[in-house]
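Bumping my old thread because nobody answered last time. Still need a sequence for this structure:
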């Protein structure tokens, strides 16, 4: 789904450039830049996306871990309550 958004954004950007006529002014600049510069810019963008993606995955895993540890802690509290009730009832 995200790839669809990226492709749609690129297409929309291209169409806007065509409609506004900016492309005619920008084209000489774009053709003067070596091809590897575009490759580096695309690689930087891809790396930024992967860093963002993995940070979000880490955040989700952290929340799952925190939830599990919280359940373990609450179970220990309940067991301690039961143990104290039994000890005071005897």
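Sorry it took so long. Here it is:
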């Amino acid at each position: 789904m995200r790839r669809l958004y990226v492709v749609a954004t690129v297409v929309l950007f291209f169409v806007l450039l065509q409609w506004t006529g900016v492309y005619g002014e920008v084209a000489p600049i774009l053709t003067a830049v070596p091809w590897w510069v575009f490759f580096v810019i695309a690689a930087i963008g891809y790396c930024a996306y992967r860093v963002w993606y993995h940070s979000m995955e880490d955040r989700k895993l952290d929340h799952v871990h925190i939830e599990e540890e919280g359940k373990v802690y609450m179970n220990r509290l309940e067991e301690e309550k039961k143990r104290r009730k039994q000890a005071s009832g005897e």
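The mean pLDDT is 87. Let me know if any region looks off to you.
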